[in-house]
Specification:
Helix content of chain A: 55-70%
Largest sheet of chain A: none
Number of strands of chain B: 3
Radius of gyration of chain A: 20 Å
Oligomer: heterodimer
Strand content of chain A: under 5%
Order of helices and strands of chain A: HHHE
Strand content of chain B: under 5%
Distance between the termini of chain A: 51 Å
Largest interface: A-B, 41 and 47 residues
Order of helices and strands of chain B: HHHEEHHHHHHHHHHHHHHHHHEHHHH
Shape of chain B: elongated
Structural class of chain A: mainly alpha
């Protein structure tokens, strides 16, 4: 039963649905705790979260060119 | 006798319970031993509930006042979580029949409690060093070559940190005459040295590589203890001694991002978690640097929550390692079928560290970020948010994904021993409890201030941050596929550069050292030879001069002198009127007497 609900395709659909719902929620809720003006932009934290992770992965990939060595490096 | 009863009236030091308890372990066996192992840290936890606030157990030591028990909200909060984690850790290691590991673990936690409750630098330093040695044993008990080597590097770094700390303490005592451990004076060099010693244990880059180098080499159960105590003791002493030091804001922020970048590059699941500790402690250090009541509460609460969920993550990684013998993402995968319970506990830990609403990270970390916002530290605020997104990326998704899902590695195994599951279950329960009912923790924080993490906009923003980080993870999955690599970190300097230095010492440096040594001993020999018989020596030098002059003049008389030189050299040591040692001493005594006379009269 549970295996039929939790298929790869269903999980993907549920994930995409939650992305949309969360984005919509951001547009609807009142924002009381604004620290920086750009926090008020619609869906700011969605974009910030996504871009942060892209940046982190790209920077680490770039550094990996110099930092990643084969496992026997220290032996 | 009255002294003893007054000591006991103020309760029992929880560290003493653990240390004395540790010494009793070899006396028990079988089921009784298992009960004792869990009861010791549990008793320490209970003893804390009866500790009255104030300074207890003061002793006079060489004119300085030692205080073993400074009990206030801050030390109690760390005391509670340390003993709680020790209890869970002991449950997790019950299957283990290795007294040495159990004793080291209890000694380690006991000395950490010693640091937390002490009010003076002397006790702090002693406990600090015991902590380093006891934790070293939790690495060495793995009993293999990599752990032996990593252990040596680990203890060398901590020996350095300890020396710097001691130097700072000695300077402090010399300047102020007090060994009291309180908020540091920013104008003094000693404060900076002590801070440096603390930062080594807090694993602040570039002094952090001992952690990511050695913790992954610890034993399955030892690593669970290691992940909790050394860095969090450092966070405690920073809160106590260095609140509001601006440099800590920046060091903490850098740390939180540094840890993520390396965790993304890593292939070894325990190394991912090790870098994740650096990332999380970064939030706490930044909180100490901000220094407001809210941020210090935040650092304390985050340390509390972190010990539980990071312990839980290390437990689940340990369970996988224990059952499969593998640690690399490239060798693992698809374990969700064989180890579903471990997966669920792991996911609870992952949700907690990622600060999902209803889990512990959400109710603790957000205090630090809110404090940064309240102080209008905009760059810090934004960078900590970025780091929060990154936490989900590496510890929240990457770790469970590559271990339990991704490709099917073909490994078929079972759940770990029951005691491991109970320990994970306990930690998972507490992670959710702190997420759902954070007031429980807020009530015991140092400052009593109102804080509510569950405002509607905060919850939505956090969900946005997390879900869109997850989206980024799946979009960039091809870039995140792991290969069999390791990543260079600052330990390179003492692992590779030190090898070059050793070559320099052994080859060129030794060659020239020998040259200098030879010249020196030759010179010394000539002086010795001269003083043995100065009159004859002068004769020899004079004749050598004659020979040189005559040869230059082209005279044939030089040969005669050369012959005389040979004769004189042969006679050099055999002259009968040589001064005996007794005679020399007598002459020296007379000279000294004359000198004394001149000195006293003059």
């Amino acid at each position: 039963m549970i295996n039929k609900i939790l298929t790869y395709g269903n999980l993907k659909k549920m994930f995409i649905a939650s992305l949309v719902l969360i984005y919509l929620a951001d547009l609807l809720i009142p924002k009381h705790h604004i620290v920086v003006s750009w926090e008020a932009l619609p869906g700011f934290y969605s974009i910030y979260g996504f871009l942060s992770c892209v940046l982190i992965v790209l920077v680490s990939k770039l550094l990996g060119i110099w930092l990643q060595k084969r496992e026997e490096y220290y032996e | 006798m009255s002294e003893l009863s007054s000591l006991l009236n103020s309760g029992i030091h929880p560290g003493i319970i653990l240390v004395l308890g540790a010494s009793l372990i070899p006396l028990f066996g079988g089921k009784l031993k298992k009960a004792v192992l869990v009861l010791i840290p549990a008793a320490a936890f209970i003893s804390l509930m009866f500790l009255p606030h104030g300074a207890h157990w003061g002793f006079d030591f060489l004119g300085y006042e030692l205080i073993f028990g400074r009990v206030d909200n801050l030390s109690l909060c760390f005391g509670y979580i340390f003993t709680l984690m020790a209890t869970l850790g002991m449950v997790y290691s019950l299957h283990l029949d290795d007294d040495g590991q159990h004793i080291s673990a209890l000694l380690y936690v006991g000395s950490a409690l010693g640091v937390v409750f002490t009010g003076d630098y002397f006790t702090l330093f002693i406990c600090w060093e015991i902590m380093a040695l006891a934790s070293l044993m939790l690495i060495w008990y793995k009993r293999d070559e990599p752990s032996r080597k990593a252990g040596y590097r680990y203890i060398m770094v901590h020996a350095f940190g300890g020396s710097v700390l001691l130097a700072g303490i000695i300077m402090q005592v010399a300047q102020t005459g007090s060994i009291a451990f309180d908020a540091a004076d920013s104008g003094m060099l000693s404060s900076n040295l002590i801070l440096l010693g603390f930062l080594v244990n807090a694993a602040v880059p570039p002094l952090h590589a001992w952690l990511s180098d050695a913790y992954p080499e610890g034993t399955v159960t030892g690593a669970v203890f290691l992940s909790a105590f050394t860095t969090k003791t450092a966070v405690y002493v920073l809160i106590r001694g260095y609140p509001g030091w601006e440099i800590l804001i920046w060091l903490g922020t850098i740390m939180s991002i540094y840890g993520i970048i390396y965790a993304i590059l890593e292939n070894d699941m325990r190394r991912i978690l090790a870098y994740s500790i650096i990332n999380q402690v970064g939030f706490m250090v930044a909180g100490v640097g901000i220094g407001t009541a809210l941020s210090l509460n935040g650092s304390t609460a985050h340390a509390f929550g972190h010990i539980l969920y990071k312990g839980l993550l290390w437990m689940s990684a340990g369970a996988v390692l224990y059952m499969t013998g593998k640690r690399k993402c490239t060798e693992l995968g698809g374990l969700y079928k064989s180890m579903p319970l471990t997966l669920i506990f792991c996911l609870i830990g992952a949700a907690s560290i990622s600060a999902f609403p209803l889990f512990s990270g959400f109710t603790t970390k957000s205090m630090i970020i809110s404090a940064a916002a309240n102080q209008h530290l905009i760059p810090v605020f934004m960078l900590l948010q970025l780091a929060s997104a990154g936490v989900f990326l590496h510890a929240g998704i990457k770790f469970p994904y590559f271990v339990f899902f991704a490709k099917d590695s073909g490994i078929r195994t079972t759940e770990p021993p029951k005691n491991m599951l109970y320990a994970m279950g306990g930690a998972a329960f507490l992670c959710i409890l702190l997420g759902v009912y954070p007031q429980l923790l807020y009530n015991i924080l140092p400052a009593q201030i109102e804080y509510n993490a569950y405002t509607i906009d905060h919850v939505v923003q956090q969900l946005e941050l997390l879900f869109y980080s997850a989206l980024a993870f799946f979009v960039m999955l091809p870039l995140l596929k792991r290969k069999n690599t390791i990543s260079l970190d600052t330990d390179w300097f003492y692992r590779k550069l030190a090898k070059g230095f050793m070559w320099y010492c052994e080859k060129p440096l030794t060659y020239y050292a020998k040259k200098i040594d030879d010249t020196a001993s030759r010179t010394a020999y000539i002086f010795l030879w001269f003083t043995k018989n100065p009159v004859n020596a002068i004769g020899v030098f004079r004749d050598m001069l004659y020979v040189t002059v005559l040869e230059m003049a082209g005279s044939d008389k030089a040969g005669a002198f050369e012959k005389r030189i040979e004769q004189q050299k042969a006679l050099h040591f055999s002259r009968e009127e040589q001064i005996t040692i007794g005679m020399a001493v007598f002459l020296l005594t007379i000279i000294l007497l004359i000198y004394l006379l001149i000195y006293t009269i003059g």
